[in-house]
Amino acid sequence: MTKKDIAQAVAASTDVSAATAEAVIGAALDAIAASLAKGEDVRLAGFGAFETRERAARTGRNPQTGEEIAIAASTSVGFKAAAQLKRAVNG
After folding, report:
1. Are 48 and 30 found together in one domain?
2. What mean pLDDT comes out for the span 68-85?
3. Which residues form a coiled coil (predicted)?
4. Are strands 68-71 and 58-61 parallel, antiparallel or unpaired?
5. How many Cα atoms within 13 Å fall on the side-chain side of residue 68?
6. 29 and 7 in one domain?
7. Do residue 57 and residue 68 come from a single domain?
8. What is the tens place of the pLDDT at every residue in 35-49?
9. Computed from CA positions of residues 33, 34, 40, 43, in that sequence, does the dihedral angle turn out positive or negative?
10. SS3 sequence, 38-78?
11. Are 69 and 60 in contact (CB under 8 A)?
């Protein structure tokens, strides 16, 4: 499902246009991304929590040559589903 598909589903279940729904969803996703960029956790009740995770620098290998390469430290985004979402998905 794409952002456009979500916007169309929201528009169908409310009295707003698809363009308005897409703009609202885009703004919400931008707000989530901005909060994560600042290192803040984002919790959506009944859905789940997004959090940033620090990944340490490490040594990796090129699978074709076996040559060792240095992988720099980075920050990644993790998601933990809420129990309510897990129940909905599992039936």
Report:
1. no
2. 96
3. none
4. antiparallel
5. 3
6. yes
7. yes
8. 999 999 999 999 999
9. negative
10. CCCCEEECCCEEEEEEEECCEEEECCCCCCEEEECCEEEEE
11. yes
